[in-house]
Fold:
Amino acid sequence: MSGKWRTRRARMSIPVVAAAALAGGQLTAGAAAQTVDQDTARTAARPKFQLPLPCGQKWWTSTHKGHASKYMVDMINKNGKTQGTPVLASAAGKVTESKFYRDAGNVITVNHGGGWSTRHMHLDIRSVKVGAKVNLGTKLGTVGNTGSWTSGAHLHYQQQLNGKVVQAKFNGRTLPVKWKYGQHYETSKNKCGPEPPKKYYVVTKAKTSGYTSTNGKIKVGFLNKGKNYVFCTAKGASKKYRNTTSSWWLKTDLDSGHVNKWVPAAYLGKGGGQPKDTKGKTIPRCK
Structure:
């Protein structure tokens, strides 16, 4: 996949590449389209940008020699339809450009403060106007194929610092520079919500009461004997089960329907040390 879904090699009229000039058949960046090395980019507080596409979707990313900067990114959907997919704000900010250009098509630019901005080109539609305040995940438009300098539906995307294109980062990770599709894809974490807590599996030796806290005073429901999952562990009041006494407690969802409650780790029958799961891994302390 190398010949389709790209911004073509040509002079664009939009400000970011207005100073580009053809040299030896390729675009070379002028003052308005210069790149910034990563040490310079780190001098400003970069927002924690997310992929500007719906949560969970996977998108191939690529640049090519026709771009004024190798850090300009073209994206196509890895598993589904590209055209018409919502384009979302990578971080909170304010729309400073919402305009149609003959060559770049529909363009949206968002100012994120601190010198940082993002640009989105070739959109099918623009859903926000200049001056609109947006949050992470706000719909800006949809992926399209507008403008004369595109060879197929894709999203052309840039992260800029003080007007200069820099190497993009998504979810805190630097996007590698790839020169054709099929070499690297990103999975969107845009507005995915909190990740579910990790589960650790243990075996309780008997049915036990659940408690509202690790002081072991107020009972709420029960946890059955057998294999159960827990989320984390904490210290509290000592409890005894047969020959095992422990001051460790386990946070879990009870079989009675109560969630995020506490059961004594003594019912694991494994001594008084910090509890471990069935694979021998130490269960982390609750934060």
In short: The domain at 15-187 is CATH 2.70.70.10 (Glucose Permease (Domain IIA)). Residues 8 and 149 are 5 Å apart (CA to CA). The longest strand covers residues 232-241. The longest helix spans residues 38-41.
